[in-house]
Amino acid sequence: MIGYITRRLFYGVIILIGVNLLTFILFFAVNTPDDMARLSIGARRVNADAIEKWKVEHGYDKPLFLNARQDGIARFTDTIFYQRSVTLLAFDFGDSDAGRDINHEILERMGPSLSLALPTFVLGLLASIIFAMVLVFFRTTALDFWGVVLCGVMLSISSLFYIIAGQWLFSKIFRLVPYSGFSGGLDIIKFLALPIIVSVLARLGAEARFYRSLFLEEIGKDYVRTARAKGLGEHIILFRHVLRNALLPILTGTVSALPLLFMGSLIAESFFGIPGLGSYTLDAINAQDFAIVRAMVFLGSALYVVGLILADVSYTLADPRVRFD
Amino acid sequence: MALSLLEASTVLKFRLLLLCMLLVGCSPESGDSKHGAADSPINSPYSRGAEQRNTLYTAFSQRSPKALDPAKSYSSNETPFTYNIYEPLYGYHYLKRPYELIPRTAQTVAEPVLIDKQGNALAANAPVSAVAESIYDIKIQPGILFQPHPAFARDASANFVYYPIKAEALSHKFSIADFEQTGTRELTAHDYVYGLRRLASPRVASPIYSTLAEYIVGFREYGQRLREVDRELRKGLAATTTELPWLDLRSAGFVGIEALDPYTVRIRVKGVYPQFKYWLAMTFAAPIPWEADRFYSQPGMAKSNLSLNNWPVGTGPYMMTESIQDRRHVLTRNPNFRGEPYPCEGEPGDAEAGLLADCGKPTPFIDQIVFNMEKESIPLQGKFLQGYYDIPQVDSGAYGVAMLVAATDSADKASLYAEHGIKLPTTVEAQIQYFGFNYKDPVVGKGDTPVQQMRNRKLRQALSIAYNWEEYATIFNNDQAAIAHGPIPPGILGYQALPLGYNPVVYDLVDGKPIRKPLSIAKKLLAEAGYPDGRDATTGEPLVLHFDSTLAYSASSQLDWMRRQFASLGVQLDIRVTDYNRFQDKISQGSAQMFALGWDADYPDAENFLILFYGGHAKVPTGGENVVNYVNPIYDALFEKMRDLPDGPEKESLIVQMTDVLREDAPWMFGVFPKSAGAFQQWVGNAKPTQMVRNTLQYLKIDTKLRHQKIDQWNPPIWWPFGLLSLVVALTLGLAWRALRRQDKQTAFGEVSR
Fold first, then answer.
1. Which among A204, B138, B260, B282 could bridge B264 via Cys, Cβ 3.0 to 4.6 Å?
2. Shortest Cα distance from A132 to chain B (angstroms)?
3. Residue A153 CA, distance from chain mean position
4. A322 vs B: CB within 8 A
5. Is B325 within 8 Å of A105 when comparing Cβ atoms?
6. Please, are residues B216 and B257 in contact by the beta-carbon 8 Å criterion?
7. Which residue in B46, B63, B724 has the most chain A C-beta atoms within 10 A of its own C-beta, making it the best mutation to test that interface?
8. What pLDDT is recorded for position B754?
9. Residues 6+ away with beta carbon under 8 Å from B49
10. How far is it, in rounded angstroms, from Cα B213 to Cα B216?
11. Residues paired with A118 in a beta bridge
């Protein structure tokens, strides 16, 4: 397995270099350093002198890929691409175009992002599995029918609606939680209660329906009939046997998403005023802050690569038949 | 043992309360004001009792201010910080309108001494051509202290505590509050000199340097010298390093900006430039203590986000004490502030509005200003209506206008705002929204030959008549804008109120009221321009004009409306939606045919608007602010004469003449003067909307008792949904149990056995 993981990590590095190159080309295809300077300084009284100073200050006063004015290796190293890329592989993201340390910002914002994403992930997974199991348990009754209808309704509604409806109901009408905000200590609960509930509800319909179909597929198999013939209770069959056998496709989706929890949620963080990495990325895109966009895309890609490797590893734990040798 | 009904009810209440505590982390007393003064409602976004403190809560949208370095800061969302932390030499009277320039740290608003080329003093009314320089000797008030800051901290031997400091010592310092020791010192003229010199620094991308370098003697050459000094300092350092040795501006000076003594700043301006005094009311002219510049230049500071850009050092009423990017910024009363007295005079109506009641009292009134990030409008509005924001946005009048519009559209909203006692005072600001014709364009521009020039002018005039700005203001500004008949907004010398100041090219005066000319006149002008019924008289081709816009397609209603205005003359409008950067490129290159833009005055002087038409400031080729590239020698001559004059009848007369030239040439459709509205809770006192006066926070006050009472009144929590939820859960469980029983008793034939 170690050989397999090493090989995957090596591929991952190549993917990351490719992602970095692609991000760089895409960003600078639509945005010149002059554009970035103009946007940063403002529309009024922007002049060539100010633009030039800004570019020098932020290291954008060099050619993108090839510096014809230099000789030897410096033709490639004294360029924006090289100088902005080489530190990335060591996860040193440098400064944002606004002059703030990106590594520090990521560390500061990781906590708020995780405090929303982790409970949402765990509770959402539990709620979806339990709800799907209950539907399967009552599969011959009207409860299953109405449960599936409910899932259909829930998955048809945009997550934005859950947020707005949640804020309207619990913050405006019932006045039980604040509209938005974030705080440390115990106060964190009152700020995160609504976002977590809303986020869990928003994914419940789609996931429960998917898991239900997985469980239903399993429940018709021979080993379930054997278990019933042995006299095992339905709940034991479901939670001990069916769940374990249906776990593989669930793991594919969940374990690979696990590292991405660090990246936060774009919409929920924005609406609930949670200062996490999701809103950080969104703000950087709006402000055309290349340094942050590049860092976040790079980080996201790296985490995704790790997630996929973890998912592969988790197969071996969930299903002893899976081996990488 | 069965519980009695009462016991069961008590248990249920206890469980609900426990659930509430688990869910929202509330204290048992939360939401119940009877239990103590420090309680806050359960939905309060602040810590317990926060609304009872002398703290003003407001919000900022989108993102944290980008640049708090006064040499760089030029965005309105930065001004609540920069103008309340820094003190330029001058400011504007908080209450008087038209705006009046007053000294802030200066003793008086200094009049310049005029000298000729030989250095001889001239009379104040000397001809402009004889004046070589205007010398401003500005005296500052003694005894003004900087805010407490670690840059000033000294030990018992008078050595600086935090200079030099090793980068390792900064590894856990990301805030000024992380430094234990602070110090202060008296503000001197040298700090203003240092701040102004810094505008020329090659390490500071100041948007204003090039403009001021045109006026201040030797400023451009000084910038070149600093480049040389900087180049020397960078020798041997990696090109990418951000850890640069300090560029000490004390040693390298020049004659244009000097400190004559600790309390006198001398600035030498080329020729006559009466508007120069207004630049001294902006934070570009803020004092910068050299200790702070040196402190922040130390290795490791930038890496810890410690810079003038994030942690300003000023003498103003407030200082930054907390700064969490894109989350929260806190201004706290500067303990060293001298307590500037509240004004005793204002404009008519201010006394009746209670705005003079605090006459002479030392400011600021509020201890702390908390700015929270609110990206979305729903939470912002929700919290404002719940009382958790005292002012939704300090830096912009847009929110107040939106509330006024909502109140006009909906009787429910109007009554809700009235019930909450929300104050929405309005004012017309020194700003304009206009529609520009690029004067370099062959169709709508100046034209090459006299005949073409006449045709193009008539085309612009025809379009100006057809484009119904009254309708625009009603639909898109919800009547919260005044129609512009010229480029000068109300409240500025040169503005002529209606009906005297109406635009005779676009309007007729009927019963003393300006009425837009009929479409038939526009059509006649269009025909005379060579486009009868919107078709080229020579080729028969339809006239297609191009409008560049940064408006997204989501604003299609506005774009459709514009198309209809042009279509009323048979002219086709091709709309090109571009992103901000492409739009700026087109403007810079002079390739956009028509566009809509706005202009906020830097200072309340007509020159700041009329320069937008001055040929010497055409965007192509000078890169100036005349984005329509309008060039008219008659106008330019009038402008050059007007800008050198002090306020008075002669200047006013010239402004009127220039406005007439612009009306005739119509390089702009003058558009509207948007209104600005403040939105204030009933407990916020001394509030007066303004976009020109930016150091307003020190004048505001809060009735914290009223706020606490109203917040409690408006936010009682509703608990019955938990009961309902329990019922639903119980019902579902019951149904499940029944279904289960039914399932268990079901036979292989689908019947339920008994």
1. B260
2. 14
3. 25
4. no
5. yes
6. yes
7. B63
8. 53
9. B37, B38, B39, B40
10. 6
11. none
> CA-to-CA distance for B104 and B110, rounded, in angstroms?
12
Distance separating alpha carbons of residues B81 and B381, to the nearest angstrom = 23
pLDDT of residue B3: 39
Residue B685: its H or E element:
strand B684-685
**Could you tell me the CA-to-CA distances from A296 to A11, A283, A290, B303, B325 in Å, in that order?**
20, 12, 10, 19, 17
Euclidean distance between CA atoms A304 and B479, whole angstroms = 52
DSSP symbol at B111: P
CB contact under 8 A, B42 and A177: yes
Flag if A177 and B43 touch (Cβ within 8 Å): yes
Contact yes or no for B176/B305 (Cβ under 8 A)? no
What mean pLDDT is reported for chain A?
Answer: 86
Which pLDDT value is given to residue B552? 61
The helix (run of H) or strand (run of E) holding residue B266 is strand B264-270
Task: Enumerate the residues of chain A whose CB falls inside 8 A of the CB of residue B174.
Answer: 104
Interface test with B, best of A27, A45, A182, A269 (most B CBs within 10 A): A45
Q: Does A123 touch chain B (CB under 8 A)?
A: no
Using the Cβ of A107 and the Cβ atoms of chain B, whether some distance falls under 8 Å is answered with no
- Residues A282 and A284: their CA atoms lie apart, in Å, by 5
Tokens encoding B77: 């969302």
Taking an 8 Å cut-off on Cβ atoms, the answer to whether A177 and B310 are in contact is no
Nearest to A322 by CA among B457, A313, B535: A313
B interface mutation test: which of A175, A194, A228, A288 has the most B CBs within 10 A? A175
CB contact under 8 A, B207 and A189: no
Please list the residues that pair with B137 across neighbouring strands: B266
The partner residue sitting opposite B373, judged by closest CB among A45, A171, A273, is: A273
Q: Do A178 and B736 touch (CB under 8 A)?
A: no
- As a whole number of angstroms, the distance between CA B473 and CA B554 comes to 19
**Stretches in chain A below the pLDDT threshold 50:** none
Q: What is the DSSP letter of A181?
A: -
Report whether B395 contacts B80 (CB < 8 A): yes
From residue B332, how far is each of A137, B295, B622, B685 by CA, in Å?
Answer: 60, 22, 43, 19
Predicted pLDDT of residue B11: 42
Please check whether residue A29 touches B, CB under 8 A: no
Residues in chain B where the model's pLDDT stays below 70: 1-38, 239-242, 551-555, 748-754
Q: Which stretch of DSSP H or E encloses residue A48?
A: helix A48-58
**CB of A279 within 8 A of CB of A105?**
no
pLDDT value of residue B748: 65
3-state helix, strand, coil in chain B (%, to 5): 35, 20, 45
CA distance B334 to B148: 8
Q: Which residue has the tokens 């604003």?
A: B555
Using CA coordinates, name the residue in chain A closest to B308: A99
Are B326 and A54 a contacting pair at CB < 8 A? no
Contact yes or no for B146/B184 (Cβ under 8 A): yes
From the CA of A48, how many Å to the nearest CA of chain B? 8
